[in-house]
Amino acid sequence: SSLKATGIDFLKSQNTRQHHTDAYNIKNLVVRRGHPFQVLVSLNRELRPADKLSLRFGIGENPMKNRGSLMSLKPEREDFNGWKISLVKKGGKECLLSVTSSPNAPVGKYNLHVKTGTNIYKPENGVIYLLFNPWCEDDVVYMANEAEKNEYVLNDTGYIYVGSAYSIYNRPWNFGQFEDSILDACMYLLDKSKLSLTERRDPANVSRAMSALVNANDDSGVVLGSWSGNYIGGTSPMDWIGSVTILQQYYKTKKPVKYGQCWVFAGVLNTVMRCLGVPCRCVSTFDSAHDTEENLTVDIYLNEKGEKLNISFDSVWNFHVWNDAWMKRTDLPNGFGGWQAIDSTPQEQSQGRFQCGPCPVKAVKEGDVYLPYDSKFVYAEVNADRVYWLVKKVNGKDKYFKIATETQDIGKNISTKAVGQNKREDITREYKYPEGSKEERMSMQRAYSFIRPSGLMPRSGYASTVQGLGGNTQPLVPNEPATKTGLHIEIKNTEPLHPGNPLEMAITVKVSTPGNWTIDLTGSCQLQYYTGKVQANLGTTKETFNLEGPSEMQIPLKIAPDAYMKTLSSMEDEVLILVTAIAEVRETKDKLTKETSMRFQYPPITVQMPETARLYNDFTCAFIFKNKLNVTLENCKLLVEGLGIFKMTTFDQGDIMPGRIMKSEIICTPTRLGERKIVAKLISNQIKGISTEKGIIITE
């Protein structure tokens, strides 16, 4: 009788363990390219030497051998398009086959059929998901270090660093790349990207396409960005605690999810890349330039009270979050492999779409900003100069006076979560040489030769050209960094910045040169979004005093709660406190500007639960919050999620008066082993960003 396949066992538990894919919550087999996996084929009779048996792997709508989308693997003829198959053993009516896909095979969903003579057997759940493989030395995403793979590929939780350079804090984020339908959502995005099969072999193409598809601009991608402060008809960007709900909703509705800001785009892109098998991390840069002119300067305009004005096209964001994906760049000269910056926040178009990267981090550091993709843009985000202008009314017209140039202010404290530890790692040195070093100057000269028109020298001590607002170009000599009097300004808070309390800050002015100096100080306090947009003016101070150098003077700046609480309660976004100071020495005309952003400080949420629990055995988790502030927190919502423990849950808590304690409990059933994390976030009208997390070990 003719040979027929009657069944196929995908040996899922053994294969997924070996391929590090056992965490995916999906009934199909998920494997990584370039590594062998086994399948057990059942037949209607014993296999004879003359029998013809082949496994056929097809990808796409209409798989064909000559297009490379159909691999027909015969045990006796090993290699086909870099794929290999061998007969491990046969006995009775079964044969065990080992299949190794090519380490540069297109990633995606493959249909597996068994062909015996003219018979074709199509198994149920015969779709196999093939991913990138950081464990395979021949795959371009290969990563040698085991701990790094555990973090950047397999860790489904993490932190995104936000706040300001002065006060960085972590926002726990659930990536959840293994949760229900997340892999299918990523496969849907791959299909939607219209990448050809050849393009799907290379993570550079895939990561670029995903940076475009994670934002909704121009391709109805996953998340719709909004910085409007009005999030009716959607979820406020502050209210997400992970990517899972977002990707599940997108996959179900195929419509963009409302709303995101930079950390949401970065969190979702991180999930997508890790899910597809590309090592990836979220990267936060503090004081990040959004330079619309590609001229490497960001102009900040202040009025005579020292208040920042919202009139500039370019801006400095208190922080900006993007991603680094790990790969060899086969399209570039040697030496530019490793981390590549990708950014899905829709800022500027690149080749006609809102996409950014992959840009080699090494190219940013060395100033090789001609390399694809978007390296000039990324370079400017971490290397621009900040130029301060004073806007004065002269005969009823606005006139612009340049007061200072800050050359070491942009691109500070570049941060990501440390490998295997719940703490921040500073990776600024991967992006930049030390400020002021010889290497930094050489890198900058290199970058300027590609960005600036020829003939303009880099910023260090030479005249540079800046576009004034009026459109006329005037040559400007940057201030000599050392003023004649050694003028220096420091800004800090003298009391904790709790909402509902007076904001108590101090501006310290120092002079280091001997002599009697008269100093005019202007200071202002404002509320601003993290994008640098001013939301409210809270107060100003003007002082004139004498200093006998070397000495210092501390000027207090105090803002009453009434001046800001109404604004704070009416805003949907988290805001920062911005203090700007301008000091001028009358005798020498030395001028100096300094600005510092600070965040409000909040009481904590505590999580009570056991340290360990057993698989499928219930335990109780309690969330406790005491309102230690002097204000009632209105419309409080507690959002909680524990991957592999319980689904995203929201508790409405109403108003929490000062001194009151809120307690919520949830019954948890762990469904996955190992260390699991529970994330909680409390939001109200007055405060947006209290979050916490706690780990628990789940055992058999």
From TrEMBL:
Gene: Tgm4
UniProt cofactor(s): Ca(2+)
Pfam families, A to Z: Transglut_C, Transglut_core, Transglut_N
Keyword Transmembrane assigned: no
Name used for this protein in its record: protein-glutamine gamma-glutamyltransferase
Keywords per UniProt: Acyltransferase, Calcium, Metal-binding, Transferase
Source taxonomy: Eukaryota, Metazoa, Chordata, Craniata, Vertebrata
Origin species: Sterrhoptilus dennistouni
SUPFAM superfamilies tied to this protein: Cysteine proteinases, E set domains, Transglutaminase, two C-terminal domains
Residues noted as binding Ca(2+) in the record, renumbered to the chain: 383, 385, 435, 440
